Amino acid sequence: MSEKEKSLGKTLEEKLTSKRRNGLLKLTPEEIAEADGFCEGYMRFLDDSKTEREAVISAIALAEANGFTPYDPKANYSAGDKVYYSNRGKSVIFCVFGTQPLENGTRILAAHIDSPRLDLKQHPIYESNDLCLLKTHYYGGIRKYQWVTIPLALHGVICKSDGTTVTVNIGEDENDPVFMITDLLPHLAQEQVKRTLGEGIKGEELNVLIGSRPFNDDDVSEKVKLNVMRILNEKYGIIEDDFISAELEVVPAFKARNVGIDGGLIGAYGQDDRVCAYPALEAILDCDNPEYTAIVVLTDKEEIGSTGNTGLKSQYLKNFISSIADMADVPDYRVIRNSKCLSADVSAAFDPTFPEVAEPKNFSYCNQGLAMCKYTGSRGKSGCNDANAEFVGFVRNLFDQNGVIWQTAELGRVDLGGGGTVACYVAELDMDVVDVGVPVLAMHAPYELTAKLDVFMAYKGFSAFIK
Ligand code: MN
Ligand code: MN
Fold first, then answer.
1. Ligand sitting nearest the alpha carbon of 344
2. What average pLDDT does the structure give for the chain?
3. Ligand nearest to the CA of 421
4. Which band of pLDDT confidence, cut at 50, 70 and 90, is reported for residue 204?
5. N or C end of the chain, less CB within 10 A?
6. Do the Cβ atoms of 310 and 301 come closer than 8 Å?
7. Among 48, 174, 168, CA closest to 119
8. pLDDT tens digits, residue range 294-306?
9. In the beta sheet, which residues pair with residue 95?
10. Domain with CATH 2.30.250.10 in the chain
11. How far is the CA of 129 from the centre of ligand 2 (A)?
């Protein structure tokens, strides 16, 4: 219908009322191909970066290839200089100095690179009835029943008694063995099926099968365990007590794959929150001469409350800003007060199979773009940031002016549950911050889904914010 044929009501409706629309209907085939191409790099990053330590290594490698150098607190940096600072190898800050004086503030993107998983206990290894297993303690909000009968890989570091550290990565190479947690056969599950879903698999039942062949010596009591230790000792030079000073993470051994006959979705482990971390990283790698000093922080420990010295409750981000403020000879509180931050973290995508958890007007949807979440929290927004309307308005206009397809998000129906992000810890520094991220289906599951359009819109939105 041409413009002049529109009724007054139709014209007013278009002008005054808000409508949701699939983002793919707003893009040209060339733009969709660009989004798909961006996601190829993202999927490689996912396969290389299943733990926070691996994500730091991958991110620094990409940054060094793009001219970033290690931050030197004694150096004098000027506009366009690109630096990075690794916090204990588990979180990392990237910074490109801007043309504006530092006291006018910075632009910060904060995403997390830890994901829900199973950590090995400090005395993990034991033998039972000729099988060798590993005890785990889960990390973050997992649904325990989802972690049985899937191929698992073992990643991490072991600090040995001689002071050296070995890196472990078993189960990712096609020729590697994988590991598994067993479950009951249905024939013998009559008692187990009466458990609630939350108790279907209990924490102490998440035992990872690691070996089945004995060391053939009648003088030895636990022959299978000894054989596993012999193999680990040959491979890594470790003894059983070295598990005490290790961080070993059991993660799904799946690779990132295209999902759906049209290939529009990405299936992978750990997309919460690497689906925001990677676009934020790419945004700063492409950020050559920003107006305001641009900072990307990829942080650890978000999934357990941002605790520890590598989580954003620690002072490490503030200390970095203080350090660059010292260089510019301005008080750090003025830099911080004038800074703006996007807390880049995922939202829950609407799931047609479970519509009852959503309030559909305010939920986020796959393929409707980057999702802005003004507040999280639970029971009356408790514990959340709840961004100021002025800052939400600033971000909204920025996205609109830069062709970013975006939507709003709220985590489910009121009083159904809730959650949090790093936003409240950034806000505590005295900075404007709002949550913005990619919608995820089956969040925190061993295999999570995102839409390629939304991943690319994260990159576009983050780029517009820091450029
Ligand atoms: Mn997250
Ligand atoms: Mn999470």
1. 1
2. 96
3. 1
4. very high
5. N
6. yes
7. 168
8. 999 999 999 999 9
9. 83, 295
10. 117-252
11. 37
CA of 361 to the centre of ligand 1 (A): 22
CB atoms within 10 A of CB 25: 7
184 CA distance to ligand 1 middle (Å): 32
Query: Separation of 35 CA from ligand 2 center, angstroms?
Result: 24
CATH for 117-252 is 2.30.250.10
The answer to whether the beta carbons of residues 176 and 170 sit under 8 Å apart is yes
The ligand minimizing its distance to the Cα of 141 is 2
Structure tokens belonging to residue 421: 């992000």
pLDDT in tens, 434-448: 999 999 999 999 999
Ligand nearest to the CA of 139: 2
Q: Domain 19-115+269-466 classified CATH 1.10.443.10? A: no
Helix (H) or strand (E) holding 24: none
- Range(s) of the chain covered by CATH 3.40.630.10: 19-115+269-466
For residue 294, CA distances in Å to 56, 243, 285 come to 18, 40, 11
User: Whole-angstrom Cα distance, residue 292 to residue 335?
Assistant: 11
